[in-house]
Design a protein that fits this description.
This protein is of the alpha/beta class and 309 residues long. It is 41% helix and 18% strand. It has two domains: 110 residues, no CATH class; 172 residues, Rossmann fold.
């Protein structure tokens, strides 16, 4: 299941290399985004790491657990639509920007048809509550505080769309947000700023705002709420991407196989339960570990590290 309580999806990278002491060394990074580019590039350049000794394991949802259930219409507070933010509320997460977008949505666009649920906690929560009061949008916003997985499912099963307001900066551009994948698991379309890793993860399941403006974000929310057919298509596309490309079931074999290799166990094919008509019935962990990681590294670092471009 996707890790809770962090704004960026967490991957785990383990590199096995010679220690000079007669045994393997395991280096572990908790990283923001699918690939810790700077760390890996530095090790590849120095010759201390080969691409085939790298395994990247993304923090991904389990779609057998994270899936839409029966909506609770009462969560909409009498309004037609419900929009959700899920995650940490720190200075880098853009929740203050989201509140300004809601202000524009309500007071400039004159929209009274959507309630906004902000699920999570963080250092800025008290300040965000005060900002909502100053902007006079308290009637349109619910701060839930920390929620467990059951409560998260209740809210996301009742939503029309999710939002990823993390602003444009180098850190966010390299990060895959857990909320992005969680919205997709629940079949929700989303509005997000046009960050590189968000585009890679969500693909056609999101509307991307390239202008770094609260107004543009609010306009995108309003436009998507007014297009139910598009929301359905985007929601299905997101759910399919989770089931067939980004699910934890497709990450877990690589994670387990890391320890098999370190313990000297033979490579094996791991059976996994099919979760959609397009999902594989089994995963060859030899391919899961070595080949995709090698291809990704060569594509990203080949020109600088001397491998294939």
């Amino acid at each position: 299941m996707a890790l809770a309580g962090i704004s960026a999806a967490v991957g785990i990278l383990l590199a096995r290399g010679g220690s000079g002491l007669g045994g393997p060394v395991v280096r572990v990074w908790r990283v923001s985004g699918p690939l810790p580019e700077r760390e890996v590039l530095s090790l590849v350049r120095s010759g201390r790491l080969r691409p085939e000794d790298v395994t990247v394991v993304m923090s991904s949802p389990d779609p057998t657990v994270m899936r839409a259930g029966v909506p609770d219409i009462s969560l909409r507070r009498g309004r037609r639509h419900l929009c959700a933010y899920v995650g940490i509320m720190g200075p880098q997460d853009g929740v203050d920007r989201l509140l300004h977008s809601i202000d524009y949505f309500v007071h400039v666009l004159g929209r009274d048809d959507c309630h906004f649920a902000l699920l999570g906690f963080g250092d800025c929560l008290a300040d965000l509550r005060r900002l909502a009061a100053e902007l006079d949008i308290e009637d349109w916003v619910t701060f839930t505080g920390r929620v467990d997985h059951q409560e998260l499912g209740r809210w996301l099963s009742s939503c029309d769309l999710g939002v990823t307001p993390d602003p444009m900066c180098e850190f966010n551009d390299r990060s895959t947000m857990n909320k992005t994948l969680e919205y997709m698991a629940y079949g929700l379309p989303q509005v997000a700023y046009g960050l590189t890793e968000t585009r890679r993860s969500a693909g056609p399941a999101a509307v991307y705002v390239d202008e770094d403006e609260d107004k543009a974000f609010a306009d995108a929310i309003a436009s998507l709420l007014d297009d139910p057919a598009r929301r359905r298509i985007m929601g299905r596309a997101g759910r399919e991407r989770i089931e067939t490309k980004l699910s934890w079931q497709l990450q877990a074999p690589a994670y387990v196989a890391i320890f098999d290799r370190l313990l000297g166990r033979p490579d094996r094919i791991v059976d996994i339960r099919s979760i959609s008509a397009n999902a594989p019935q089994a995963v060859d962990v030899r391919d899961t570990i070595v080949l995709p990681a090698q291809r990704v590294l060569q594509q990203r670092f080949g020109a600088e590290a001397g491998g294939e471009a």
